[in-house]
Structures are given as structure tokens and as C-alpha cells.
Design brief:
The protein is built from 15 helices and 16 strands. By secondary structure, the protein is an alpha+beta fold. The strands form three sheets. Strands 1-5-6-11-10-9-7-8 form an eight-stranded mixed sheet, with helices on both faces. The protein has a five-stranded mixed sheet with strand order 13-12-14-15-16, sandwiched between helices. Its EC number is 6.1.1.21.
């Protein structure tokens, strides 16, 4: 787990602002759920035989009521729990998004931390393939807005329960015939969740997995029609995709469409967005049967990819640095600064380093003004204040040009200072 400090935190603010703006354009509304949920929620939702539940969750017993609780390892289950608990679907489906920290106990590596952050979008209460496509288009739009390249879309269909049951039987039969080639993890999951074996990262098992029966060959006509409709919409929207028949995702709640946006620039942590349809999760957590689809983005990985590409992410700098040569002018300076701030001007005010030492020389303050990155220095000099004026010094024009402005025309001054 790590701290996110200035100036790097500015890139987080920038990315979150881009995401919020895009979510509004797509009519997705913000939801905020607790970081701590009942452990049973994740066991039911994610599946008992998954890496997250078996190995990665931070779980503990509440001291008061002895309930078993877990720091959320993902947010979809919590969003669904909130939707059910608050009867949010009484007037129709909901498009929701969230941002926040998640927790998994895994080996820290590049772009992967034990406390990590996700942005997710969930469309709950919509059965049609157009919503699967809409979620994919939403993520694809984000990459375009951020200027990311080298990101490819991989898609697959997991079908419906009957499709998977037939495929499951075929997988078990196939792996039983090759049981000597399975590692311990695969053998343990052979009868409890053989689909997870296809997601193995063991290089010694890749050829075996690649030759295993494909779920696509067991899809019903209805599942195929749904998947074909998703692909047709993506084609019509100009979104390039690649079929990955081994794509299964890491949670058990998925059905029908699953997808990932991946890159080769982050090594083994190449998935920056993943999701799919989960039509049975609402019922699993206590609600009525309700279709749903969604995805989650790894914020650290997106920022890492932007950095890898050399993207120019704006850093926070104030519009104005307030230079106050004399302590006698602090009161009037603060009044003016507050007016400017309320009018939308970002102002960093100079302050003394130690009590009783005064405000520092004009030269030292202007040096700090320049290093702050501000476009203007606002100088509250004794002489100017006596004439109810102040001086605006341009810091970035190479000449240090100056002009005086009346304290009675703050609105006009604010417009000048915002245009930098």
C-alpha cells in the first residue's frame, strides 16, 4: 500500500475529472459504497473457488457482533448489494459508476498494489446486447479522450449456465485424461471449478490449456445470437476487437459477454480494464432475477500506461502568487485574495516561514512566486495599497511586465487573472 503525494496526486485529479465528465455524457450516475462489506457477500458473489476468495481477501472478525467482514477486493458485489438493499430498480434499470480503493493480498509489483484503485461502470436491469456494447464503447471512448494507444480489445462469450454445464463436463473429461500434466492448483479445481484452469498463468500448462475444449463450441443459439449482436454493434461503431476463446475473467458471476482491454506495455499486468455480463449476481445476493453488465478499470495501470507513453498530464499550478512585502498589508491582502478565489482565481498566498520574522524580502517572495509556476505575481506593496491599488507582475512573458489595478475593480482583475 502506498501514499499518493503532490505533485503526482494532480494526475489522479486530472484522470478522475476526465472520467466524471465522460460518465455524465453517457448518463452514468455516481454511487459510493462502504469499503467494508460482509465476507459472505464476496464468497457468494465471486465464488468460493477463486483466487480472490481463497487467497487474496483481507478478512477479519468484528469485535462487537463477531460478524466476519472483508475489505472489498472489488466493488461490483457491493454495488449490487446496495441496489438490492435500497430497491433502486423500482422505476427501471440504473446506470452507475464508482471510484475508490480496493484491497487484495497479493505480491506487489508494477501497477499492482495491495491497496489499489478502480473506476467501475455498471448497467443493472438491462438485458440487451446493446448494453454490453455500450459499456465497451464507454471504455473505448475513455482511451480516446486520454490519448492512449496500443490498447486492444479482446472479447469472448461464456454463454449461459446450460452451455457452461456441457462445456464443464467436456473440460473435466479432457483434463482427467491429462491429469499428470496438471499442477496442484489445477488438480484442486478440476471438479470444483474447471473453467478456472483455463485462466492459469503456469507456462508449463499453456499448450494443454490451448488444446482444451472451447466454450464457444458449446454455446446455444440464443447465446450465439447475443454475442453476434454485440460484435455487430462494435463493428458499426468502428471498434476493433479480437476474439479470445480463453478469456474467462477471474470471478464466477460472469455469463455471456466478457471482455478485456489489454496492452503489451505493462508486462504481465497488461489488463487495464475488464468486465462483462453478470445476469445472476443480483439474485445471488438476495434480489430478484435481474440482468446486469459492467467493467472495472485499474487506475494505477492507466496512469502507468500514460506515463509509459510520455503523455503530458497537467500539473496543478496557481494562477496567481500573492506577494505581501509588509505584515501591515496582510488583512487587506487576505480580503482581496478571498474575493478573487470566490471569482474562480487560484491564488497561492505567501506566508512567513517562522513567526516574528516578517514576510521576507520582495526579492525572495518573487523568487518563490516564480518557482510556484504561477502566471502572475500579485504585489500588495505599501505605496500601491495607500492608493487603493495593487500591482500585477507577469512572470511568464520573459519581460516581467507590470500593471496597476484598482481595488475597486476586482471583478475586472479576476477576468484578467483567469485568462492565463
Amino acid at each position: 500500500m502506498n501514499d499518493i503525494l503532490p505533485p503526482n496526486s494532480a494526475s489522479w485529479d486530472w484522470l478522475e475529472e476526465k472520467i466524471r465528465s465522460l460518465m455524465n455524457i453517457y448518463s452514468y450516475r455516481n454511487i459510493r459504497t462502504p469499503i467494508v462489506e460482509s465476507t459472505a457477500l464476496f464468497v457468494r458473489g465471486l465464488g468460493e473457488v477463486t483466487d480472490i476468495v481463497e487467497k487474496e481477501m483481507y478478512s477479519f472478525e468484528d469485535r462487537l457482533n463477531r460478524e466476519n467482514l472483508t475489505l472489498r477486493p472489488e466493488c461490483t458485489a457491493g454495488v449490487v448489494r446496495a441496489v438490492v438493499e435500497h430497491s433502486m430498480l423500482y422505476d427501471g434499470g440504473k446506470r452507475l459508476y464508482y471510484m475508490g480503493p480496493m484491497f487484495r493480498h497479493e505480491r506487489p509489483q508494477r501497477g499492482r498494489y495491495r491497496q489499489f484503485h478502480q473506476v467501475g461502470a455498471e448497467a443493472i436491469g438491462f438485458p440487451g446486447p446493446e448494453l454490453d456494447a455500450e459499456l465497451i464503447l464507454l471504455a473505448d471512448s475513455l482511451w480516446k479522450i486520454l490519448g492512449l494507444d496500443g490498447v486492444r480489445l479482446e472479447i469472448n462469450s461464456l454463454g449461459q449456465p446450460n452451455d457452461r454445464k456441457a462445456h464443464r463436463n467436456a473440460l473435466i473429461s479432457y483434463f482427467e485424461k491429462n491429469i499428470d500434466l496438471l499442477d496442484d492448483d489445477a488438480r484442486r479445481r478440476l471438479y470444483s471449478n474447471p473453467l478456472r484452469i483455463l485462466d492459469t498463468k503456469n507456462p508449463d500448462m499453456q499448450s494443454l490449456v490451448n488444446a482444451a475444449p472451447r466454450l464457444l463450441d458449446f454455446l446455444s443459439d440464443e447465446s450465439i445470437a447475443h454475442f453476434d449482436a454485440v460484435k455487430s454493434i462494435l463493428d458499426a461503431a468502428g471498434v476493433v476487437w479480437k476474439l479470445n476463446p480463453r478469456l474467462v475473467r477471474g470471478m464466477d458471476y460472469y455469463n455471456l459477454t466478457v471482455f478485456e482491454f489489454v496492452t503489451d506495455r505493462l508486462g504481465s499486468q497488461g489488463t487495464i480494464c475488464g468486465g462483462g455480463r453478470y445476469d445472476y449476481l443480483v439474485e445471488q445476493v438476495g434480489g430478484k432475477p435481474t440482468p446486469a453488465v459492467g467493467w472495472a478499470i485499474g487506475v494505477e495501470r492507466v496512469l502507468e500506461l500514460l506515463n509509459e507513453q510520455g503523455a503530458i498530464i497537467p500539473k496543478f499550478i496557481p494562477n496567481v502568487y500573492a506577494v505581501i512585502p509588509s505584515v501591515n498589508n496582510i488583512l487587506i491582502a487576505i480580503q482581496v485574495i478571498q474575493q478573487l478565489r470566490f471569482l474562480g482565481v487560484s491564488v497561492q498566498m505567501h506566508s512567513s516561514i517562522q513567526s516574528g520574522e516578517g514576510m521576507g524580502s520582495m526579492k525572495s517572495q518573487l523568487k518563490k512566486a516564480d518557482s510556484s509556476g504561477a502566471t502572475y505575481a500579485l504585489i500588495f506593496g505599501e505605496e500601491e495599497i495607500s492608493r487603493k491599488c495593487l500591482t500585477v507582475k507577469m512572470l511568464r512573458d520573459g519581460h516581467g511586465s507590470q500593471s496597476e489595478h484598482s481595488l475597486d475593480a476586482i471583478n475586472d482583475l479576476a477576468e484578467i487573472l483567469k485568462n492565463c
